[in-house]
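Reviewer 2 asked us to include a model.

Predict the structure of this chain.
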Amino acid sequence: MWPVTSQEWGRVSEDGTVFVRTADGERSVGQYPEGTPEEALAFYTNRFDQLAFRVEQLERRIHAGKTSPDEALEAIKKEKADIAEASAVGDLASLVARLDALTPQIAAQREARKAERAAKSAEAKAAKEQLVAEAEKLAEGNDWRGGANRMRDLLEQWKALPRIDRSSDDALWRRFSTARTAYTRRRKAHFAELNERRDDARVIKERLATEAEALADSTDWGATAGRYRDMMRDWKAAGPAPKDVDDALWKRFRGAQDTFFAARDAANAAIDAEFAENAVKKEALLVEAEALLPALQDGGDLTAIKASFRDLADRWDAAGKVPRDRIRELEGRLRKVEQAIKGVEDEQWRRSDPEKSARADDMITKLEAAIDQVETDLAAARAKGDAKRIASLEENLESRRQFLEMARRASADFS
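Predicted model (structure tokens):
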């Protein structure tokens, strides 16, 4: 039999039974038949230390917020149950007290987590509302390529966000899904219409390419060039055909145009060379024509000068066309000579016009008769001393005399 051995929190009876002291009295925690009473107490005290270590670890996890409030409460419950039945010697009540002391902190953490969840929920709701607003805006627009990529990005962002309260989440998802569906339908309709237009463009461009190739060897330069311009306008108005077809048709269309315009340019180059030779001929004729001016200015024989100019004009016409940029210069010089001849001719006709001479003589006769009458009337007015009439008649007389002088000068030009 062992002697009774005890300490503050437990004892060992004579039969080796180990007891722990609690507020409710002693409780047997087991026997330790091997070893001394001190070793028995040490064994069960060590078990208490293990319990205390677990409580300390739990305290640390809870203080660090590494466990949820529910998990913490469940762990405390388990630890308290283990302590209540623990085969250990020590201040078990202090361990329970330490566990109970964690309850207010857990409650505070619960409230903090609740507030955090509410904040995250509000943030997620705001983010989803923003995604919905952007999706609805995209659904109303016509950005068919960039918009599709952006819609996919928005969906991935939606998936990455946490769920919020069920009713709000469902309502926002319906709006988001509706916007995506509306956009997708409009996009498909757009590309279907685009494909239809491209097919129509293909038909038009095939016809234009065929016509262009048929005209490539035409030598009707003006009309054909005009038709090519019209076809180019129709080509642009047709819009794009499918890419591979469009490139092939353009190669045919452009190739036919190049063939025609290259031939036209070669023909025009030959014509330009001919026109340049014609310009040289006309420059020589102008030298002859301008040589008539001195004789014309010196009063030479107008009939002979006109005959020479007519011969020059005939040779001018026979010389043919000149380059477009020389037409105004050369025609202007010839016209200057022609106008000089016509000016002299007109002046001679004016001076020798018998009808005009007769009209001038008749005017002189009439003015002289009128002046005689005014002088008679003036003499009578002076005799009567009628100052008002005298002034009027003198003014009238002076005016008629000026007209008479002008008429006499005009008559002299026809003499």
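The chain is about 80% helix and 5% strand. The first helix runs from residue 37 to 63. We have added this to the supplementary material.
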